[in-house]
């Protein structure tokens, strides 16, 4: 789960990391009130979960009240890579002489966290990692001990941060690691850390991603989750407790187990169709959950056809069949053609129960997907 | 022959009194697994499915001579349960639990470097040596004893590939679900190494998915160290960058690492055919035999 910049900055500020003065606003008047207080220059920054906000027109600098009004007018309500901007952060402009990158993330390969510092801040750090990996100094962290102060100093020296700023930057890094650990972050970064013309060190941006599996022990952060859904369908999936990702195609996909659902998406593509979504009902799904899954996929206006692929281990085929029947019997007319393939535990019992007036049944995964793709083509015409 | 588990494996089930723990203990017993004890704090002295329950893994190991554990403990407590198992010097720990916080697993991962225990999982279906023992939640009836090893990051995709194999009359030495999390114990390389050393395993099916670089590293290992032929499958070719596809570990990062393309080409370069559909994995294996 990704936090908004303003949320991450609140957390940073509370922990003592210097951030520019700022206010959140959701209207043009709100923006004007904020600049009246903060002064000029001020940055007006869209609060949406996309990278590259500046290039996409989601960040504007205002040097006067008139420019602030123009910035607010153009950013509030704009569509930024599929997100509607409903809030902006109005922030004091910083006169800077240099920009650094400071971050902590989980190194999957090593299975331990890694601290990273670079003097090439203010640009896409992933591009730096690709083009000039030596420009990013790294220090792996033993999670049992945390980031030792000497390590925070070392990685800052290794990155080539000038001596007069090294102390402040390593202090920010140490605080970042504490926040990373205390908040169960999966990534935490400041890009850029700005060196101001007054020689101050300040966090000009803030990125914080939280491990969704740890939200049970992060109640304050869990409350922010509501904010993180991209669209109504993802919000609905969150309420139903499904792993769901919406895609742009027209063949709806429901299955159990992440790997098998991904493989089903791939097969739809392989047979010339386009997947509309990833939906994993999880293990041991009962009839009502199956009904909810169908409701999810039918709610997507892009969907022209549905394929149900269940390989029962702890999920029972007869429960799935019951759920499909119950959900479909509620309709006067089936909204979209549904192809079902059941295998594994109680699959035969399930096949017997399935109401074949309502669904098409196929014995193999490949046949089921091909039929669903054909259905999608037919409906789309 | 087999790898990691067989008739002699003596199992303690951590979390045996919970719904999942109880159900799968019964299933494991029915399959013929030597489930000798359960461990649940505060439940010592009880019995589940005829299996005695102890308060700690240590007691269970002492009393019943267990050498492996299966963890069915809820995610909030599972990291601690795995630590308890590791500190008891078992040969093998299989963590079924899905949703363990990554930072808990980073600490477990550190501990793993200090002990001799193998960890399988977490967030995995477990491991099965057909006809001998299963530790986990895999449906025993689709497996058949034979000469093909299987290693996979996904549960149900494993079942799909196994049923394709079994339908063709191809049995399995051992099947290992290594789990879909970013940090796991036994890696592809660990499993491949074990199969390579097993004289009964004549071919290996390996099912990977997007995210991380384990498959790329496995490809390198296969090219440099293995004689046993391997056939592959990679799930997630159509996954968009930046989206978690169910598994916490199945995510393609913005910079393009962990993509299906990168894994498929690494495996192809190592001489591993990568199937376009799950059923083609069984076809490729049949050609090896």
UniProtKB/TrEMBL annotation, chain A:
A molecular function GO annotation: succinate-CoA ligase (GDP-forming) activity
Gene: sucC
Subunit (UniProt): Heterotetramer of two alpha and two beta subunits.
Annotated positions binding substrate: 256, 313-315
Organism for this UniProt entry: Halonotius roseus
Reported cofactor(s): Mg(2+)
PROSITE patterns hit by this protein: ATP_GRASP, SUCCINYL_COA_LIG_3
Annotated residues for binding of Mg(2+): 191, 205
Pathway the protein contributes to: Carbohydrate metabolism; tricarboxylic acid cycle; succinate from succinyl-CoA (ligase route): step 1/1
Function: Succinyl-CoA synthetase functions in the citric acid cycle (TCA), coupling the hydrolysis of succinyl-CoA to the synthesis of either ATP or GTP and thus represents the only step of substrate-level phosphorylation in the TCA. The beta subunit provides nucleotide specificity of the enzyme and binds the substrate succinate, while the binding sites for coenzyme A and phosphate are found in the alpha subunit.
Pfam families documented for this protein: ATP-grasp_2 (PF08442), Ligase_CoA (PF00549)
NCBIfam families noted in UniProt: PRK00696.1, sucCoAbeta
EC numbers, comma separated: 6.2.1.5
Protein name per UniProt: Succinate--CoA ligase [ADP-forming] subunit beta
From TrEMBL, chain B:
Classification via InterPro entries: Cit_synth/succinyl-CoA_lig_AS, Citrt_syn/SCS-alpha_CS, CoA-bd, CoA_lig_alpha, NAD(P)-bd_dom_sf, SUCC_ACL_C, Succinyl-CoA_synth-like
UniProt GO molecular function: acetate-CoA ligase (ADP-forming) activity; nucleotide binding; succinate-CoA ligase (ADP-forming) activity; succinate-CoA ligase (GDP-forming) activity
Presence of the UniProt keyword Nucleotide-binding in the record: yes
Pathway terms, separated by semicolons: Carbohydrate metabolism; tricarboxylic acid cycle; succinate from succinyl-CoA (ligase route): step 1/1
One GO BP: tricarboxylic acid cycle
Enzyme Commission code: 6.2.1.5
Superkingdom of this protein's organism: Archaea
Keyword terms of this UniProt record: Ligase, Nucleotide-binding, Tricarboxylic acid cycle
Keyword Ligase on entry: yes
GO-annotated cellular components: succinate-CoA ligase complex (ADP-forming)
Binding annotation for substrate: 159
Signal peptide: none
Residue span, CoA-binding domain: 4-100
Pfam family, one: CoA_binding
Active site per database record: 247 (tele-phosphohistidine intermediate)
Family of the protein in this entry: Belongs to the succinate/malate CoA ligase alpha subunit family.
NCBIfam families hit by this protein: PRK05678.1, sucCoAalpha
HAMAP family: Succ_CoA_alpha
Quaternary structure, from the entry: Heterotetramer of two alpha and two beta subunits.
PANTHER family in UniProt: SUCCINATE--COA LIGASE [ADP_GDP-FORMING] SUBUNIT ALPHA, MITOCHONDRIAL, SUCCINYL-COA LIGASE SUBUNIT ALPHA
Name of protein: Succinate--CoA ligase [ADP-forming] subunit alpha
UniProt organism field: Halonotius roseus
Classification lineage: Archaea, Methanobacteriati, Methanobacteriota, Stenosarchaea group, Halobacteria
